[in-house]
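User: Can you predict the 3D structure for this chain?
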Amino acid sequence: MEAIIITRNLSEIEISEIATIAGNDMLIYASTEQNLPFKFLQFPELSAEEKRNINFSTMKTVLGFGERKLENEPITELLMQDTASPWHYHKFRIYFTLRNMKYEAESVRNLASKHKTIKLFTSYPTLNILLEDEPGIIAIPGKSKNAAVNSGNMLRFGTFFVLRGFLGIFQYFKVRKKRHLIIDHALKQQCLDFHTLEPIEGNYNLQYLFDKLGNEFVILDDTEIPKPTAREKFKPGSQFYGIGKNKLFGEFVLLIGLLSGRVRNSLSTFSSNLKLAYLEIENNLESKDHKVILQQLKSLHSSTRLFLFKYLSYRRFLQNLKFKSITTIDENSARIKSILDAAKYHGIKTIGIQHGTIHELHPAYLFTNTDNELSIPCDHTMVWGDHWANFLEQTGNYPKSSLITTGQIRTDIIPKLIETKGLTIPGIENDKKIIVFASQPQRDPVIRKKAAWDVFTAVKDMQDIQLILKLHPAEKNDENYYREIAKEAQCKNYRIIHKVDLYLLISLSDVMVTCFSTVGAETVYFNKPLIILDHLRQDIQGYHKAGIAKQATNAEELQNLLSGFLKNKISVNKEAYTSYIEKYAYRIDGHVADRILSFLHQIE
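Assistant: Here is the predicted structure, written as structure tokens:
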């Protein structure tokens, strides 16, 4: 029997053609939210074990791609342009794309033994490479459609860019003799003023460090460039135009780069070099997985050019300044790494600050011997606790001498929160038990939806509770996504929150639920109960193994655990909590920012 598998939206012509043959000894499987006018079976999911195996094998493959040598030169080095590393700008993104492709390919292979031929309507243009040894499977990718450019957004951003670029001229003369630069690039979130505990808009990870900076520091305010096709309206608030005493707008650096003929010429040279490198790599690859990785890398060339432009602009900007250090969170993202690569060119020390939990499936924090030889990681990385330092050394392959344990900056507010009584959050009912679900934009859409479904299902019939769904900062536009799932689950006793201080919310909560978010670790700081919703039983962050979290794999288990905590039939493991804080958070004493500043002042 022949089969059709549908994992993407179909065109009207494709729907018509399939509808014509549906039912005529043709089995149809589908995994799409598109309404289809014919009957189909649900495309089978992989088992938890199969997904785990793919997760780890894909990570090994991605790391191995950079290590692959062509005439004794690793691909990572072949792709490098001076101190800029295009491979590391995209490694994170490529891992998740390849992983999801391998999920789909393996699911199709599982059905291949039951069908003589399979037509697969897929969204992945290069999936046929992974399936080239399966003659009975024909992959049919959708035709790429060029999304319409959001001209209004581009006009708004262009105006914003020029204004901030020119305002930066006045800032430049104030900051050019400073010695240390700290990058502020996070989305502004609500956090608490350190002195008054009143809510303010700020950098949730670094605000308490910013509050203590002396006159030798500059805050580089870097705004993410919106995608031309982005539907979300670009609308910066008035706070984005405040010049500030020790602030510099990143748009000034990029504007100077745009006006520089040397930057433009170097960018053209780098782009040509990369295209030649792609060709050399393509002629020497045998692994199907590596072929897919290269095709993804080539498809991202426009993004690579943007990051290289940023690299060249900052390289030019930094050449006549006397900065001793550049410090940032999210140091391995392309947007920030391109700046740090420019700093390395001039011998400026680069410092990363841990801003989230790290695990063995996190592409941004796993490096190879070649990476270390090429000085890819930051010169120093400040971590929350000794556990993270040991992990980065042993699993992430970081040099031991580069790791400094300081604690987590935003915990500096915790001693004040704990000693202050009567705090509230508008809209949250104080007479009910509060269950918080800290959501995440997981890369596996099936698991992401299942997590939300299980939470809503578990609490919908519970009495005298209020579920607070705390959106991840990257999910600020996903409220309707969760409301639809809540509606399907028939859950009404919930509220969705985006703009609220997380630590204030944790301090008022009775139970925290998450999958593998950093919020789990932070819940322990307040001695609150923690439940991880872990459908694949991976315990990615090790919360369950450490004894600080109960583990649920479905809605029923979650409901039982929630009831147990709320009825005091289950309690937290205080000994495990104390041990965890010592290992993972060093000290919660209100002086983390002081320790970081002390280290920065020692850099020569």
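The CA atoms of residues 318 and 418 lie 43 Å apart. The mean pLDDT is 93.
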